[in-house]
Amino acid sequence: MTIDSNISYQQTTQVTLASYPDTYPSEENFAVNTVTLPALQDGEVKIKHTFLSLDPYMRSQIAGRHVSGSIELNGLMFGEVVGEVVETKSAKFNLGDQVRCMGGWQTASIQKDSAVFAIGNIEQPSHALSVLGMPGLTAYAGLIWQAQPQAGDVVVIPAATGAVGATVGQLAKANGCTVIGIVGSDEKVDYAINQLGYDACINRKTQDVEQALDKLCPEGINIYFDLVGGDLLHSVSARLAIGARVILCGMIAETNSKERMAGPSPGMWIKARAIVYGLVVYDFEPRRQEFIDACAELVNANKLIMKEDVSVGIASAPAAFSRLMRGENMGKVIVKI
Ligand SMILES: NC(=O)c1ccc[n+]([C@@H]2O[C@H](COP(=O)([O-])OP(=O)(O)OC[C@H]3O[C@@H](n4cnc5c(N)ncnc54)[C@H](OP(=O)(O)O)[C@@H]3O)[C@@H](O)[C@H]2O)c1
């Protein structure tokens, strides 16, 4: 069965990796092609993609150093999508169902039904890729389940207006914490304080971050939700309070370089009796619905907000991804297809 006899979605327009970037990716590293989809088999569904999520991990896949796999030269870029079932040979899905899957950077795909998930009680479909999707789950798992914030804790977050950071910051505020963001522009500082409700925010490009942290956190930092690695991890680790929790979640400061940076001295963590967690969101997949149930109401009531940085059309994905890698995004990067 197909959803519309006039539109059979027999083709898909794809973005593939045309060359490996040395450092920051640019549009020239990608190609756009249209190919014909194969016939649907039993147990499969055809999905018309409506939103594609662009995420920092894709740069690590290109570099061949991500836990989730690598992108081959001329291969389709991986990525999570939200879409609509337009043809089905599955007992699990009906025409018109709103679903998410790893459909990749393309306009439609055929998927085994075991790899497709209903978006369920999420009112705005793009939220299944942002605040109520993988980035939101990352934030919730790291802050609530790992760091276990207490009222009065001082929480420091870099990339603080991004998809993960903005969710961490708002959840920390909701738990009575003092939240200090670190961001890369004055526009983001303004957004963090006036829209996300942070207590303070530091511009890492124009301010002395260490001096600002000394002033803002005189009793030390209780939770550092590290999304960037690099120099900031060192600066914050030197300012931890006793019993601090450090969530090692991302290392975007070195994602675009071939070399690895040296880490901070473990002595800083020993001195603070810190608990240091490595976070891989995939480990928390079995608890995804628990997280959605805890946060959906807050999102629907606009108490947990997520700015989405939306570009239009699959061909816009390479430029949007390049902007994300350069920190030029404002919120969760999504392609509307
Ligand atoms: N471990 C996991 O399972 C997991 C899951 C999801 C995401 N992550 C990681 O979490 C991090 C945030 O992901 P996201 O999707 O929420 O991205 P994002 O924050 O929306 O975008 C990335 C941001 O990183 C900041 N940045 C870029 N280069 C930087 C540098 N050299 N130093 C400091 N900050 C830099 C920029 O913000 P500013 O310009 O404002 O600083 C940029 O906007 C990434 O490192 C990602 O890989 C990990």
CATH topology name of the largest domain, in short, is: Quinone Oxidoreductase, Chain A, domain 1
Apparent shape: globular
Just give the CATH class of the largest domain.
Alpha Beta
Main sheet properties: 7 strands, mixed
Q: Mean of residue pLDDT?
A: 96
The total beta strand count reads: 15
Order of helices and strands: EEEHEEEEHEHEHEHEHEHEHEHE
Beta percentage is 25-35%
Unreliable spans: none
**CATH architecture field of the largest domain:** Alpha-Beta Complex
Distance between the termini: 23 Å
How many distinct helices? 9
* CATH fourth-tier homologous superfamily of the largest domain: Medium-chain alcohol dehydrogenases, catalytic domain
Bound compounds, please? Answer: NADP nicotinamide-adenine-dinucleotide phosphate
Number of domains: 2
Secondary-structure-derived class: alpha/beta
Q: What is the helical fraction, as a range of percent?
A: 25-40%
Instruction: Specify Rg, calculated over alpha carbons.
Output: 21 Å
